[in-house]
Amino acid sequence: MISTSARLLRLLALLQDRRTTTAPVLAGRLGVTERTVRRDVEKLRELGYPVTSRAGADGGYGLGAGGALPPLLLSEEEAVAVAIGLRLATSAGLRGLDDEAVRTLARLEPLLPAPARERLRTLHAATLTLGEPETVDVDLLVALAQARRDACEVRFTYVRPEKAESRRRVEPHRLVRGGRRWYLVARDVDAASWRTFRVDRMRELTVTTWRFTPSEPPEPADVMVSRGVSTAPYPVQVRVRFEVPRAVLADLVPPTVGVIDDDGAHACVLTTGAGSALALGMHLADLGLPFRVLSPDDVATRLHAAAELLLAATAPA
To answer: Per-residue pLDDT tens for 137-155?
Structure first.
């Protein structure tokens, strides 16, 4: 028979697995009587664990939220997943979280079984992060997320290179991670329109007590960010139809490069931008897929002229 301490740990693990588990099921899993289960539940409560109980046919015991986080009993695969997440957090550019991630990883890694520890170290040794992420204060992200949850208006100073600082009042809708940066999709109260903001450019953020009624933007938040990053900043913007399904083009064009929309079952339309028509044409041709420029007409004309120059330059002498 296992000791009481070991049985309590097993009971705690069982309570973490499901929202509610009946006393007979717990007794069967632990190999004890239902009376023992009830006594063990009381012992967990005395130790500070918020074990809830519910009567009825669908009732049972569960682990509720409490003032202190209970120890998590993880399987080997779960522990590896947590460790990988902690390693990613150390390079995610979240100021105020990287030190905590390193400390937690230092405590977790020695406790992993040898095979799991070796898998984690092998993965870490074989991977690199391309480029440095823009640093964002994790407290700023948390404040924006809480304001979104509570539907509270936020105010901040927005700083952009070569442009005057501006004070903004917005209704936060969604935080989006795009490439190396974090973005906030929000309704700009003063402009009465939907905007995307780079979180690393926000200063002097204040979460007000002014409540708003949440609403939906004209298109999904990830699409707004993708369009804002891949198209809006560029002088040349274009819509191109590809004769392939959307999934095929999505494997070649990331969201930071363009927005892809379905156009029937076997075609799609890419909206993207570039610094010049020639650069745009080179990128499109490099995809190696059949395409046709839909709009605007002047870009199509410039691409046609560029193509003729390239043909002439490569024609046999």
So the answer is: 778 888 999 999 999 999 9
